[in-house]
Queue: 2 jobs
Job 1
Amino acid sequence: MSIKDAYNQWSNQYDTNVNPTRDLDKEATIQTLSKYNFDSVIELGSGTGKNTEWLITKAEKVVGLDFSIEMTNLAKAKINTSQVYFQHADLNLKWEIENESANLITSSLTLEHIQDLNHIFQQAYQKLKPNGFFFICELHPFKQYTGSKARYETTEGTKELEVYVHHISEYISEAKKSKFNLIEMNEWFDEQVENEIPRLISFVFQR
Ligand SMILES: C[S@@+](CC[C@H](N)C(=O)[O-])C[C@H]1O[C@@H](n2cnc3c(N)ncnc32)[C@H](O)[C@@H]1O
């Protein structure tokens, strides 16, 4: 099943099933981005709007890009404000957004489904205003090495989605190739058990 079809199928339980990765991402996003000032945001893989709801408490405008109609319909049902515009888009293609239009781009739990990070960093650089920030929060590659990946339950059993492993060095070298500077990198653990494998990794890059 394609990634898009899987998210369409997963959507009706995405917000409610037990998902510590989703919950920790929300915490990591809020904790990290509370420190930054931004008013215009592009959210990559906006999904059911879990983080959009928080982003509009700080930003004047958020554009959410996602290729799953079902995930986006849930986001639209939750968020009813002219501050947010959800656009149906495949991130692997050229993003149909004005250049230098945002001072923050965010991507949570989405890049594990994208093979070519170079394309993402190049597009992000074009769409960001000078000095704008690119926040990424993803399943930690150490977790991926142990076989962890996006999955959900159905009546026919567990469905696992197509994923790509991105090593830490890949995020950093691809960002550098697109002329981004690394501002911060953090690892996020379950219940602060710091001798366990971290669940998530986050980066803030600056254009
Ligand atoms: C795990 S969900 C994360 C949703 C949201 N960011 C969150 O943290 O709850 C991943 C989202 O990325 C979207 N996605 C994955 N690959 C994509 C692509 N190539 N283009 C657009 N959206 C994509 C999926 O449709 C899904 O909504």
Job 2
Amino acid sequence: MQPTFELSSTSRECSARTGVLRTAHGSIETPCFVPVGTQASLKSLSSEEIRASGTQLLFVNTYHLHLRPGEETIKALGGVHTFMHHDGPLISDSGGFQAFSLGLGLEHGVGKIADIFPDEEKRTINFAKTAKSLVHVDPDGVTFRSHVDGRKLRLTPESSIRIQEALGTDIALALDECTSPLSPKSYVREALLRTTRWAGRSLEAHKSKRQLLFGIIQGGHYRDLREKACRTIGSLPFDGFAVGGDFGRSKREMVRITALVMNSIPRDKPRHILGIGEIDDIFRIVENGADSFDCVMPSRLGRMGHILHKSKIKDQRSTISFTYDITKKVFSKDSKPLDEACLCWVCQTYSRAYMHHLFRTRELLGYRLATYHNVSFLNTLVGDIRRAIRNNSFIKLRNSWLDS
Ligand SMILES: [Zn+2]
């Protein structure tokens, strides 16, 4: 039998690597960008467009699909691949991230993507912006109050696995508890103990032979706790590992944590980084040995009219951005494509002026075209990264994007 994951090349310049991850719905070349289709839908794109955009692996969300339409409905309809008419590999999360986003995320007023790196300085909690937690975590699992209708939902390591097996995704994640960058260390330590116990219970509960199961490395931004997670969870017989946030209070900390974990978990298993996917972050985590990473960024930004392109913009805080705002008046008569080097069908077909018009008039087509371009743009970039790793020119490619 072929191994699930095979390394095909390792960079001579850094810890970057390429490989192939085999799943029941096809092989994935790594490094791989994973767009997020929370409700079994990459917002505004058809399944045909998801594949055409170069997407190799798509994230779907256990908590949200459990709420609506329910995993038993999806199972009765042939599983999530048939349900959403998608024959490519799918990965589901465990619901653990919702324990954060609807719990500590709400209480601390921090998100994983939007402001997890608020700035390089110590952040204080703005209680005016926070809300009451919808989550209660106990040693056995997580109790949610549904954000849709207020009913109580219970998630344990066993029920999370049962839901993901019913969905029929290709890769499942073990239930974990994601802590906030603002959680005290004593809480992060307790949460890690729970996550470690839940990892063992998830492995025991998991029966599917067609579905891979990844363990999640937690430990927040504390070096000793991350090392402990790598030793304990990293030694369990998972098919691969995902690294969960909190990744600290700055991008520098995120890179430090990624490097530490990548050096401490088995090299022969695939490593996924949860919720990271801005272009500068992608180069940094791949450089340190990450094989895949998911992020809502390209689709969320696309719907806001923020277009990815290869031209770096630095704001006053020196935050690097590779986007521009198509709704700005300057694009109203611009006949150029969204990105002049992009080969996606949107860039081959439509002008900035037309896209500007669609967003100004709030036409649905604009959201779809911008999402398609952004996802396709990132998939193309990650394809270029794979080629560069194989040719030992990764650092040159990284510098061509990130250096001023
Ligand atoms: Zn394009």
